[in-house]
Design goal:
The chain has 75 residues and is of the alpha+beta class. It has one domain. 44% of the residues lie in helices and 16% in strands. Strands 1-3-2 form a three-stranded antiparallel beta sheet. Helix 2 packs across helix 3.
Length: 75
Amino acid sequence: MGSRHAPERRPTLAEIKATWPPAVDVPTAATAFGMSRSKAYELVARDEFPAKVAKYGGRIMVITESLVRALSAGD
């Protein structure tokens, strides 16, 4: 029987603004949007992720300021 990780709690906008670094990895950003890691990477691959994505070397990072703007747009 395999074990599954519990889904991460979705962070609040206030938590993101106060504690997140300038850029985060795709799985971390996915939690803010309430989507799975696989869905997030799918959107990144199609250039449809709701926040700005930047590639640093071999890493794909999401710009936190852009993520905050995207989340705030619904307010």
